[in-house]
Task: structure prediction
Amino acid sequence: MSASTSDVPRPQPLAAVARLVMLALVAVLTLITTRDVGELRWVALLAVAGVPAILAPRHPVVAPVGRFAEVIIIGLATSEVAAAANVRGAIGAGLGASAMLPYLSVPLTVSVLQRRTREATALLAVVATTLVVGGLVTTINGERQITQLGYVAVCAQWLILASLGILAAGTLHQVMQARGDGKPAPYAEATRLLTQLRSVARQLPGATLDPGSISEHLIEELRTVAPTGRTAVLSGSGGGRLVVLAQAGLERVDWETTLDADSAIADAWASQLPQTAARSQARSHPGGDVSALVVPLVAGVRTVGLVILETDSANAYPAPVVARITAFTRPAALRLEAALLFDEVRSLATNEERQRLAREIHDGVAQELVMVGYGIDNALATLPEGAEETAEDLRTLRGEVTRVITELRLSLFELRSEVDRHGGLAAAIAEYARTVGSSGRLRVHLSLDESGARLPAATEAELLRIAQEAITNARKHAGAANLWVTCDIDPPFAQIEVSDDGQGIADQRPDGRYGLAIMAERAERIRGRLEIRPRHPSGTTVAVVLGTSPRRDSVRDSVTASEGE
Result:
């Protein structure tokens, strides 16, 4: 019973009031133009025809029939009222038609608001036909109403205005629907696409959307079809430089990762065509015969990465070999694009959530704790003499509140810390270590060794979080006096070490174990490994290693600093 009751269309008081106002307006205009109360019969007919629209505004049959009846009455009444006004001399030349036509806006507006654009167009066509028929049937002094220029001008004016109103209302409705209309279309579309992405990811070989794994698999395939001594897969990172996703070779390769250099790498990226060269695409190479091939990974119209193959022999990549390699890279480009997009979406969502948490902590708990601290200070200032025991308790409580506020501020700093596109991972870790060391009275020793190449943004973010967790554990749980932070970054290899001279991992508080579990999960996510070992004579070393350490056969820029804070 309740279900059937809820389906019954309910009257709309606002719509009824609007109709009454328009009826009153039309009645007044009719009396002014005709000076005949008898012509109000048309207003009465309009009121009767509008009853279904008031009582059953959403009925699929009754409501449209009522609106069509309204426009027919408007068309007939317009020609009759215009003739009556002309005969009685109130308004001549058929201009009396303007008395009834304002009511045309009512049924047309209702149709458009109910998303019935076709119905509104049909209503407009019906009223136009009725106006023509009425003008042909009605005569004044032996002349047809349709021959009067004033009648035609007024009718054409209102029909044009009504057409523009339908067009404007329909456009406005589409804009409102696109902006949300209670159901945000962009979010609904994003949900649909992410759901599809999840389903597809589960069906992929190995159920992976990791750019590094896809790149390594591509390298393994290419090494079976072409001679390669050194191979790498690079992708864009913004800022006119590339990042190394994966590489294979017996010796360290310092690839040219800038796109403004004079190299086959830059040419392949810009032209989206394979490029061959007789010189190495590395910044440093001992010389001799070299064949290099750079194949762009193009998905649609966008270059998402590059594959570099090199071997120490001349003319190793003729056209047939390039064709075979290109056949492998075409499907790989789509897989890599999907993985990179997934990484970007995940990174954006993570960063947004971290910023949201930081704002909530800053505006909520942190501010409240500050107020609690002020309250304790006021209580201390107003204590009577002789209440030393109470004063000591309040001072202890004030110290604890100050400690918690400091912890919150460090947590906010950690949440807001990001790897700057231009500064690099080592700089971000160093800044965090200095800040934490200063607040925890730790002497910080930094050793930073970072090449010009960059790791993927998602990988750098995870390594930063691992380093932050290790530094925080050392400050909070180890009781250390010194902190050593070592960054060795040579993409795709990276090693971050955090050591302290504290009490050691075995004696740390239990809540520190949760942080270790988080670090292990982050390391696994980027296909790295977490190493935890004791430091002699005391303390703990936490290291995260990504990839295999390359041979150091070239000199790189490095900065080593020791800072006491």
Q: What stands out?
A: The longest helix spans residues 319-381. The CA atoms of residues 196 and 562 lie 51 Å apart. The mean pLDDT is 79. The two ends are 76 Å apart (CA to CA).
